[in-house]
Amino acid sequence: MEMEDQMESQKRERRGPGGVSKEDLISERTGNLGCIGWFLVILSGMLTIILLPFTVWFCLKIVKEYERAVIFRLGRIPDKKAKGPGIFFILPCTDSIVTVDLRTVSFDIPPQEILTKDSVTVSVDGVVYFRVNDPIASVANVSNADFATRLLAQTTLRNVLGTKNLAELLSDREGIAHSMQNNLDEATDDWGIKVERVEIKDVKLPHQLQRAMAAEAEASREARAKVIAAEGEMNASRALKEASLVIAESPSGLQLRYLQTLNTIAAEKNSTIIFPLPMDMLTPFLRK
User: Where do transmembrane segments lie in this chain (predicted)?
Assistant: First the structure.
């Protein structure tokens, strides 16, 4: 009884929102061929055997490593999985195959005119990487999985970016791409498509907005430059104050500073050098 309960619970877990599992959907989609169907299949097999070896060229099919073949027998899918890679047989009169490429496909999202949350019109484009995860679902559930994914990527880009303001759009591209990937992957799961990566390529702003942002950035840089210059003047004045206090404590330091100044002036290529008269030489005469 416990084993039966566990098996029943596992079946309920595999069932979807409507109470139907994927196995039930596949069996319902494939179905039985019926008496007439089996008669046609047996007749096709007999004709294939009778007309050997001419029918071998129509019965043998080869798919590559990156491909899978979905077989339709009288319009139904007889197996629950696709064929390949390698060689397999089909009945030429009753079977038809659809080859599905499993390699990763990339496509560009055309530039989309999008109105952001703060009412700014921008042009955004991107690139999407996806691959077929379930060949049977990509053939049986959607007419053109590639085209449907392209259209869905455009609408998803508009919906996601419509909820972002301009600052988030310019600074959080990785988060926007991740959100788009999750939305696309969830929407294309029933089509057998796995979205592997989404990237935002370019964000084009209106020219007036570009000029306004450039003027704002320039004003911000000028303000920072003025603040840095003011801080430098303040530090220089503090250093001069400390130097004056040191020189006031030692009168000989003033003479050394005077000699350093003369050395600096002599190093420059000046036509005329004026030597100031030290006040120490005039001190005896001032006292008299």
Answer: 36-60
Question: Which residues lie below 8 Å from residue 172, measured CB to CB, with a gap of 6+?
Answer: 164
Distance in angstroms (rounded) separating the CA atoms of residues 185 and 285? 98
Crossing angle, helix 145-161 and helix 173-187, to 10 degrees? 140
What's the CA gap between 70 and 114, in Å, rounded? 40
Residues 49 and 4 sit within 8 Å (Cβ to Cβ) = no
The secondary structure element, H or E, covering residue 49 is helix 34-50
71 contacts 92 by C-beta, under 8 angstroms: no
What Rg, from alpha-carbon coordinates, does the chain have?
A: 41
Q: What is the pLDDT of residues 67-123, one digit of tens each?
A: 999 888 887 888 778 888 888 888 887 888 899 999 999 999 998 888 888 888 888
CA angle 183, 187, 192 (to 5 degrees): 125
Buried b (16+ CB within 10 A) or exposed e, 227-237: eeeeeeeeeee
Within 8 A by CB and 6+ apart from 184, the residues are: 128, 130, 149, 152, 153, 156, 195, 198
User: SS3 string of 134-166?
Assistant: CHHHHHHCCCCHHHHHHHHHHHHHHHHHCCCCH
pLDDT in tens, 129-156: 999 999 999 998 888 889 999 999 999 9
The pTM of the full predicted model, rounded to 2 decimals, is 0.62
